[in-house]
């Protein structure tokens, strides 16, 4: 794995010409912040191949956080305001849990739109994950997301709709985790110039893109998830039900548990429905549900990120080849001017 955090190995050191610089803006709330950082570092690191990648971590201060979490972030993350004067090849922006019905009412909206504008002009390519994808298309083209009748939650088979630089090697069907309450209309995306890359018959649009000055790649799913991420989200949502923070008992993730684990999860659900109290979550059967969970989407996830990194590398190589002749011409002209002219 040839991945280095910019705050450590590369701090203050010149980078080699073949080193890719990628930024990660982690917007996840406190409970999932560290896990999200770990997930993206792992999948990008596994996808580097022969490339050398320097990863710089950024945070948006407008995302609400507890003081102790904010203090910890400052030890390793740069404020997003430093992004404007940073040179990057690629950028990844994570999603977060929505707090407002309208994304434009989120406390970080103004800053996130500045990131969209900056990325369009200053990156070779940017990945927008889940809520960040919804925010980006809303800002760029005014595309509104729509609330789903129930949470789209589970691991779904997907097919390639359009083969491009990040999807042409995928073996179908491939699996992708989804965890979201909102969706984007495929027809509206297509009418605004977005290409649908992958789709699930159940979960709808999975991956889509738009090529302008920068290549924007959008994920409605979560290829970066670890094997137990959906289980932990399921437990979190059950806890919210038991505390009275949500009305209905959450549905278990689709396509995730085997028959035995489904029975175990349903047994706890039956208990919770007749004995709804906040501390019942302490007896949630994590020890029975967690063993044996498989990250069945890992190969395809790494493949997508490997091809994305390859796209960045190819663009950097082409740019380097174009600048070399110009440098030689300038040098030859300078040397020529220094030589004595014939008399």
Write up this protein:
- With 343 residues, the chain is α/β, with parallel strands linked by helices.
- It folds into two domains: 3-226 and 295-319, Rossmann fold, CATH 3.40.50; 229-287, no CATH class.
- It is 38% helix and 21% strand.
- The protein is built from nine helices and eleven strands.
- It has helices spanning 30-47, 67-74, 109-122, 131-141, 186-191, 229-242, 259-274, 286-289, 298-338; strands at 3-5, 19-25, 52-59, 78-79, 90-93, 125-129, 146-160, 174-183, 195-200, 204-211, 215-219.
- Strands 1, 2, 3, 4, 5, 6, 7, 8, 9, 10 and 11 form an eleven-stranded mixed sheet that branches.
- A hairpin with a 3-residue loop joins strand 9 and strand 10.
- The longest helix is centred in the last third of the chain and has 41 residues, at 298-338.
- It is globular.
- Mean pLDDT is 91; it is low at 8-14, 326-331 and 338-343.
Task: Tell me the CATH architecture of the largest domain.
Answer: 3-Layer(aba) Sandwich
Level-1 CATH class name of the largest domain? Alpha Beta
Rounded to the nearest angstrom, the radius of gyration is 23 Å
CATH superfamily of the largest domain: Class I glutamine amidotransferase (GATase) domain
Strand content: 15-25%
Mean pLDDT: 91
Draw up the topology in text.
Blueprint: E1 3-5, E2 19-25, H1 30-47, E3 52-59, H2 67-74, E4 78-79, E5 90-93, H3 109-122, E6 125-129, H4 131-141, E7 146-160, E8 174-183, H5 186-191, E9 195-200, E10 204-211, E11 215-219, H6 229-242, H7 259-274, H8 286-289, H9 298-338
Parallel strand pairs: 1-3, 2-3, 2-5, 3-4, 5-6, 6-11
Antiparallel strand pairs: 7-8, 7-9, 9-10, 10-11
Helix pairs in contact: 1-9, 3-4
């Amino acid at each position: 794995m040839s991945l280095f955090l910019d705050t450590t190995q590369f701090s203050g050191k010149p980078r080699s010409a073949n080193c890719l610089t990628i930024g990660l803006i982690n917007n996840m709330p406190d409970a999932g912040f560290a896990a999200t950082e770990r997930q993206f570092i792992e999948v990008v690191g596994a996808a580097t191949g022969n490339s050398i990648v320097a990863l710089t971590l950024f945070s948006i201060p407008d995302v609400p956080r507890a003081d102790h979490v904010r203090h910890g972030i400052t030890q390793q993350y740069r404020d997003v305001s430093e992004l404007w004067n940073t040179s990057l090849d690629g950028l990844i922006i994570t999603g977060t849990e929505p707090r407002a019905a309208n994304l434009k009412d989120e406390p970080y909206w103004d800053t996130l739109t500045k990131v969209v504008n900056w990325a369009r002009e200053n990156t070779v390519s940017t990945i927008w994950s889940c809520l960040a994808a919804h925010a980006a298309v809303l800002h760029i083209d005014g595309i509104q997301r729509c609330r789903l009748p129930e949470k789209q939650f589970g691991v779904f088979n997907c097919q390639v709709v359009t083969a491009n630089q990040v999807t042409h090697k995928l073996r179908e069907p491939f699996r992708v985790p989804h965890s979201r309450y909102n969706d984007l209309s495929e027809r509206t995306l297509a009418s605004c110039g977005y290409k649908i890359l992958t789709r699930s018959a159940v979960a709808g649009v999975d991956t889509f893109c738009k090529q302008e000055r920068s290549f924007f790649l959008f994920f409605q799913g979560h290829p970066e998830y670890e094997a137990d991420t959906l289980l932990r989200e399921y437990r979190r949502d059950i806890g919210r039900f038991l505390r009275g923070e949500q009305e209905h008992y959450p549905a278990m993730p689709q396509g995730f548990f085997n028959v035995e684990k489904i029975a175990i999860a349903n047994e706890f659900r039956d208990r919770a429905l007749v004995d709804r109290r906040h501390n019942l979550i302490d007896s949630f059967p994590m020890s029975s549900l967690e063993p044996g969970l498989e990250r069945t989407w890992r190969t395809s996830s790494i493949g997508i990120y490997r091809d994305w990194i390859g796209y960045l590398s190819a663009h950097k190589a082409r740019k380097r080849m174009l600048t070399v002749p110009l440098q030689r011409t300038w040098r030859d002209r300078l040397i020529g001017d220094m030589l004595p002219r014939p008399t």
